[in-house]
């Protein structure tokens, strides 16, 4: 009798969880399609509630609402929602998935030192330009034949952030770089799968979820690899000649130890996870946006042609530099439109209210999970003329001059705005312009532009679905 009861209880439990799984998928697809295509039958307000399993989530939609929350109420909506997965990954260390004094100190230190090592300045521009030369050489090796762009774009972006963090770049053939990039890609993809999101709703399911185990295995390998790199830098540390972010952190750790500072936040765990945050964020977002850019150029050859015509007229055959941006309004508009249209972080990373807040006529309790839908900002019909189309004219006036748009928020806004925004902007411009100067991107032979699929592959970020392109030398 007892065995039968236990058996049926297990069956009912699995039926219940299976139902929750599809409920989650329905909610996710509803939000995605709501933002992308608009509500077909029901109109929701800009603030509404959904439930992910037992968890209440407040969703903010539309430019005005998201701006009001993240900028006008920055403190109230400035905390990070630490889901079970994020907690397992970092235990509150690092920058992205942390709160409180530790987050403030790590973010402040990171921003200061990233600027010191050239982020957004001439110093880092030289490193990006050096990297573009390596990337162009790799593209050249395919001799116009079809190839998959993912890894090369990842290697290029990773080498740039590595030069800032570790003080040196990695060769694309370096097995250490390849393993780090492959694990980062896999973890980003797996983090967005339904089974991992199910774990965030029902953490007790963790031991039975294969994708979660893969993510945690990747994390263990990442920690081991970063620790080895940090240890190597520590052995050759010279406080008078700092090579990168890790050196600065190690010196700060030494100073804390020598001064007898107790409970210092500058300790090994924060170093490892801050480095991991910078590496993954600095690799995935930039490389994914560039892949979207090249795919869109192949999809819309007339737009690609206008970009290349402008580059030829303004730059000619010399190496593009950041200063060229102001003289390349159409190219700049295409890059911005790629970021807007691709919206690679459509739901943003979840926020959490730091206190009770009255917002737009609603009372939201402290500790409530909040999803600011960046897709609803970047595709807001009240802010963009043709939000569902790839249209560089969104960023151009009638005279063809580049214009800024307030609703352009691919890096989020407020207290949690991406700390690497200036680096990402420089990378996107220099990589994209250099690639379009040298190559014309086309679909593989036998594939028309219309057949290139713009449906994203859903993960933690939205990547293009797997595809190949041809890079035909223009010189």
Automatic annotation (TrEMBL):
Superkingdom field: Eukaryota
Residues that hold heme according to the record: 418
Spans traversing the lipid bilayer: 12-31
Cofactor: heme
Keywords of the record: Endoplasmic reticulum, Heme, Iron, Membrane, Metal-binding, Microsome, Monooxygenase, Oxidoreductase, Transmembrane, Transmembrane helix
Annotated localization: Endoplasmic reticulum membrane; Microsome membrane
InterPro entries: Cyt_P450, Cyt_P450_CS, Cyt_P450_E_grp-I, Cyt_P450_sf, Cytochrome_P450_fam2
Entry-linked Gene3D superfamilies: Cytochrome P450
UniProt family annotation: Belongs to the cytochrome P450 family.
Stored PANTHER family: CYTOCHROME P450 508A4-RELATED, CYTOCHROME P450, FAMILY 2, SUBFAMILY AC, POLYPEPTIDE 1
Protein's name according to its UniProt entry: Cytochrome P450, family 2, subfamily K, polypeptide16
Organism lineage string: Eukaryota, Metazoa, Chordata, Craniata, Vertebrata
